[in-house]
Amino acid sequence: MLVASLVTCLALVSCDRHTSTTDGTSRDAPGDDATRGAPAPAAFLLDGRDPVDGVPGELADAVRAQVRRIASAPDRADGYRELGMLYDSNSLPGRAAAAYAEAVARDVRDARALYHLGRMRLQLGDVEGARDAWTACAGLAPEVPTVHARLGDLFLDTGEDDLARAAYEAARVADPEHPAGVEGLARAALARGEPGEAAALLEAWLARHPERGHARFLLGTAYRALGRIDDARTQLELGAGASPALPDPWLDETLLHVAGYRGVMDRAVQAGRAGQASAVVDDLLALRRAHPDDVPALEKLVAALLQLGRKDEALTALDDFDRHVPDHPRALYLRALVLEARGSRADARTAVTRSLAVQDDWVPAHELAARLAWGAGDLRGAAGELEAALHHGGPRVDTLLKLARARTLLGDATAATDALRRATDAAPTHVEAWMQRCADAVGRRSWSTARDALDRLVALAPGDPRTEQLRQAIASSATGGASDG
Question: How is the chain split into domains, by residue range?
Answer without folding.
Answer: 2-26+37-239, 395-477
